[in-house]
Amino acid sequence: MMSLKPEKLQRLVYDILTTRPDEIGCDTCFAQLDLFVEMLQAGKNPAVAMPQVHRHLERCGMCREEFEALLSALEHYSQLH
Q1: 38: pLDDT confidence band, cut at 50, 70 and 90?
Q2: What's the structural domain count of the chain?
Q3: Which secondary structure element, helix H or strand E, spans residue 32, and what is its range?
């Protein structure tokens, strides 16, 4: 039997209790990720313009990793040019 660490269990319960009906899934988030990053690089606040993507990135480690990788790649690219 697999046991969860208390911190992991607490996070899981928190995520379940705070899930909103307008939440988006990973596919939708990923499809909008480039626009989210473009807004961020343009000095705009994508969290205000795209709150569902922002909330998803706060909750989903896999999408957050994709976001951070895309942001890092674009920053690296802009330093080269």
Answers
A1: very high
A2: 1
A3: helix 26-41
